[in-house]
Amino acid sequence: AEVYFESLDNGCAVNTGVDGFNAYVIAKPVYGDDPYIEVEWQNGTSYDIACVGTHNMQVYRDHSWAQCEQTEPILEFSMLKIIKPGEAYTERYSLDMFDIEADGLYRFTDIFEINGETVTARIDFNKGPVKGDSDDVFGTGELTTTAVYIES
Fold first, then answer.
1. For 17-59, what is each residue's pLDDT tens digit?
2. From CA 95, how far away is CA 136, in angstroms rounded?
3. CB within 10 Å: which end of the chain, N or C, has fewer?
4. 131-151: b or e for each residue (b if 16 or more CB lie within 10 Å)?
5. Residue 120: what pLDDT?
6. How far is Cα 16 from Cα 123, in angstroms, rounded to an integer?
7. What is the largest CA-CA distance in the chain?
8. What's residue 135's pLDDT?
9. What is the pTM of this model?
10. Which candidate, 29, 59, 38, places its Cα nearest to that of 143?
11. Residue 17 CB neighbour total at 10 angstroms
């Protein structure tokens, strides 16, 4: 994982794995009292994409991904958002309910339905300096690298 993150360019590396479904991390202030990730999901497919709204956070420890401890219960709202072909949808995901105080590698996931198939969108990011980081690409005073990809 360390080699993977060190090999990324500064900023975002996007590889969705689903042709036409793209994700762009717009903001990612993961320090401070109100940590969140803001993502723009773009549907360039010929199918409706349903944002199921079930998200989760993991941390990379001892050579494997483990569930982040929760600081408060996760409230899941049963609001289904449909992204029509050719449309985009921006979502701000609050990370308040997860313990992400320590620097390290984190994995945020969200669930989508595309043409009857469930896919898990994963946004991996490093909280803290990464070898080779030299720019504050998000303008937040933090150095970080982010990768976005989707796995069926």
1. 688 888 888 877 777 788 888 888 999 999 999 988 788 889 8
2. 21
3. C
4. eebeeebbeeebbbbbbbbbe
5. 83
6. 10
7. 42
8. 46
9. 0.74
10. 29
11. 13
